[in-house]
C-alpha cells in the first residue's frame, strides 16, 4: 500500500517523529533530484530525528539547570587581566574533570571572571549531554529555608542526581545561617560519595571559611571533601564590571 504525504505525516505525528516530519518533503525532493538510494535517504531522515531529539534534550536541560545565560569562553576578554589562569579554564572547558568526578574551586577578587568561567563550563556540559544544576549560593540557601519539606526533598534529589553542580559566589554575604552551613556540608558530602563534580566560586579565601561558617570543624570537613581531586584556580586583577561601569559613565558624560 502506498501512502500519500499527508497520510505519512499523520503516521509520523502518531509516532512522535517530529524531526522526520519537519524534513520529509525536503529529503524526498533531494532524493528525487539526485537519484539518491533509499537507504541513504532513510539514514538522513533518521539523523534528522536524532538531531531534533538532541536539540530538545539540550533545551530542556538548559531550562532545568538554573542558568540564565548561554556563555562561552570564546567571548571572554582574556586581555583585560592577562594573569588569569586561562589554560586551566580551558582545561575545565574540556569537561574531563566531570568525567573523572573531580571538583573545581575558583577563588579571587570580584569582577575578575569567576562566574563567567563557571557558567561557560556549565553550559558546555549541557551541550555535551550532562545534567547541570547552577545555584547562586546565597539565593539558594534563602529560598531553600523557606520551601516546604516535600519541595526541599525534591530539590535535593535534583542536586544530588546531576552530573555537575555549580555553587556561585559562596559566602558573598560573608556569613550564612547555621542551617545553610549544615546544608552546604550535606551537599558537598553527598556529591563526594557519589563521585560527582562541583564547581564553587567565591571571593573569600578558604582560610576564612571557618569564620564565615562559625564552625572550623565544619569548614575542615567541607574543604577536605571539596579539595580532594580538585582544580584550584586563582583569579586576580582588576574588576571587569568596574571597567564597564566607568566606560558607561564616560559615554553618558560625553552625551550630555
Please outline what is shown here.
The protein is α/β, with parallel strands linked by helices. The chain contains twelve helices and five strands. This is ATP-binding protein.
Shape: elongated
Q: Indicate the CATH topology of the largest domain.
A: Rossmann fold
By secondary-structure content and strand pairing, the structural class works out as alpha/beta
- Strand content of the residues, in percent? 5-15%
Q: Please, what is the average pLDDT?
A: 86
Q: What is the count of distinct domains? A: 2
User: Spans of 5+ residues with little confidence (pLDDT < 50)?
Assistant: none
- Give a count of the beta strands, DSSP E runs of length 2 or more: 5
Family: Belongs to the IS21/IS1162 putative ATP-binding protein family.
GO molecular function, one term: ATP binding
Keywords: ATP-binding, Nucleotide-binding
GO biological process, one term: DNA replication
Provide an overview of this structure.
- The chain folds into 2 domains: 61 residues; 158 residues, P-loop containing nucleotide triphosphate hydrolases (Rossmann fold, 3-Layer(aba) Sandwich), CATH 3.40.50.
- It has a 5-stranded parallel beta sheet with strand order 2-3-4-1-5, sandwiched between helices.
- The protein is 60% helix and 11% strand.
- Helix 9 links the parallel strand 3 and strand 4.
- It is α/β, with parallel strands linked by helices.
- The chain is built from 12 helices and 5 strands.
- Helix 2 packs antiparallel against helix 3.
Amino acid at each position: 500500500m502506498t501512502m500519500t504525504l499527508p497520510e505519512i505525516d499523520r503516521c509520523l505525528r502518531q509516532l512522535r517523529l517530529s524531526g522526520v516530519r519537519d524534513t520529509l518533503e525536503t529529503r524526498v525532493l533531494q532524493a528525487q533530484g539526485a537519484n539518491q538510494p533509499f537507504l541513504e535517504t532513510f539514514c538522513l531522515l533518521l539523523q534528522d530525528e536524532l538531531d531534533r531529539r538532541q536539540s530538545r534534550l539540550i533545551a530542556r536541560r538548559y531550562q532545568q539547570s538554573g542558568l540564565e545565560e548561554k556563555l562561552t569562553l570564546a567571548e571572554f576578554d582574556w586581555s583585560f587581566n592577562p594573569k588569569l589562569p586561562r589554560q586551566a579554564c580551558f582545561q575545565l572547558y574540556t569537561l574531563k574533570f566531570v568525567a573523572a568526578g573531580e571538583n573545581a574551586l575558583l577563588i579571587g577578587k570580584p569582577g575578575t571572571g569567576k562566574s563567567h568561567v563557571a557558567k561557560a563550563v556549565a553550559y558546555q556540559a549541557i551541550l555535551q549531554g550532562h545534567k547541570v544544576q547552577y545555584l547562586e549560593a546565597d539565593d539558594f540557601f534563602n529560598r531553600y529555608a523557606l520551601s516546604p519539606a516535600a519541595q526541599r526533598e525534591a530539590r535535593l534529589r535534583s542536586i544530588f542526581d546531576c552530573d555537575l553542580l555549580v555553587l556561585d559566589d559562596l559566602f558573598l554575604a560573608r556569613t550564612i545561617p547555621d542551617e545553610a552551613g549544615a546544608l552546604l556540608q550535606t551537599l558537598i558530602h553527598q556529591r563526594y560519595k557519589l563521585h560527582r563534580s562541583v564547581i564553587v566560586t567565591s571571593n573569600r579565601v578558604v582560610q576564612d571559611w571557618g569564620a564565615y561558617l562559625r564552625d572550623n570543624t565544619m569548614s575542615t570537613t567541607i574543604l577536605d571533601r571539596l579539595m580532594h581531586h580538585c582544580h584550584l584556580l586563582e583569579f586576580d586583577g582588576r574588576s571587569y564590571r568596574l571597567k564597564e561601569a566607568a566606560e558607561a559613565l564616560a559615554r553618558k558624560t560625553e552625551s550630555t
